[in-house]
Design a protein that fits this description.
Distance between the termini: 27 Å
Largest sheet: 4 strands, antiparallel
CATH class of one domain: Mainly Beta
Strand order of the largest sheet: 1-28-27-26
CATH architecture of one domain: 6 Propeller
Mean pLDDT: 94
Order of helices and strands: EEEEEEEEEEEEEEEEEEEEEEEEEEEE
CATH topology of one domain: Neuraminidase
CATH superfamily of one domain: TolB, C-terminal domain
Strand content: over 45%
């Protein structure tokens, strides 16, 4: 594996890389409350979105959709003066608006990661958070990006984080941070129980993920020396060390989808490296 190329540094806990057609990469700065566009050695603030942006994805309308955890503190302890939400960012103007902060009468806790399917549906995870009275559980949701409907697919999840959809659009994968497990759901708009796929071994936790063209999950793995772990649909696990204990996200891009952009959140870096297999090409963006 080649040494990673540093694309941007000095980022305030970068997450959610989105590879753009013009060669730039958009990241969220979770601790900075910013959406930032990165080129080689150059950064540009798109907007000061506030609180805790966690993940981003381009929607069918060309806008950036963002999971905002509401500004949670250490160990995902709730800030009672903030609201977890899904937001839409106009990349041309930097203007942003709230799309969802509840599913029916149930407020969202701490939305974390998201991905669009071939029908333009927005799938996102809610990590949940801790409150004085106990655990506020999250889960998996599917919603229309125009704010017209939202469905809870799974609830009472321990700590759902990364989310991805298989290339054939049949399966939705999620990573559970605390359990270090990958789960799968059918891409159906109905309440479901998760199907266990694999546990990533070691004293690790899992963060966000990206799909490969072959349908495997590449999940950012926190702990020990940090890694990107690859989990096949059959549950086989392998890993590539990164050297940053808090490796949080990966996204694929390039003409052949053979490059990976990875966030080293402890070091405040966005890096790029050639990947052993091609990533899945996203439907939008």
């Amino acid at each position: 594996m080649q040494e990673p190329e540093i694309i941007a540094e000095g980022l305030a806990f970068p997450e959610g890389p989105v590879v753009m057609a013009d060669g730039s990469v958009i990241v969220v700065e979770t601790f900075g409350g910013r959406i930032t566009r990165c080129w080689n050695g150059r950064k540009e603030t798109i907007c000061e979105i506030g609180d805790g942006p966690n993940g981003g994805a381009i929607g069918p309308d060309g806008a950036l959709y963002v999971c905002n955890n509401g500004g949670i503190g250490p160990a995902y302890f709730a800030r009672t003066d903030r609201v977890g939400r899904i937001e839409r960012v106009d990349l041309a103007t930097g203007r942003f608006e709230r799309v969802y902060d509840a599913c029916g009468d149930k407020p969202l806790s701490a939305p974390n990661d998201l991905m669009f399917d071939c029908d333009g549906n927005l799938w996102f995870t809610d990590f949940g958070r801790l409150e004085v009275s106990g655990k506020q559980y999250g889960g998996l949701y599917c919603a229309r990006p125009d704010g017209s409907s939202i469905t809870q697919i799974a609830d009472r999840a321990t700590s759902f984080n990364g989310v991805g959809i298989s290339p054939d659009m049949t399966t939705v994968y999620v990573a559970d941070t605390i359990e270090a497990r990958i789960y799968a759901f059918a891409r159906k708009l109905e309440k479901q129980k998760p199907r266990f796929v694999a546990t990533v071994p070691g004293k690790v936790s899992l963060d966000s993920l990206a799909m490969t063209a072959a349908g495997s999950v590449c999940v950012a793995t926190i702990g020990e020396q940090g890694a990107i772990s690859t989990v096949t649909p059959h549950g086989e696990v392998s890993s590539i060390p990164t050297g940053d204990q808090v490796t949080t996200n990966i996204a694929f891009g390039g003409s052949e989808m053979r490059f990976a952009w990875i966030t080293y959140s402890m070091k405040g870096l966005l890096v790029k490296m050639r990947w052993p297999e091609p990533g899945m090409r996203l439907i939008y963006g």
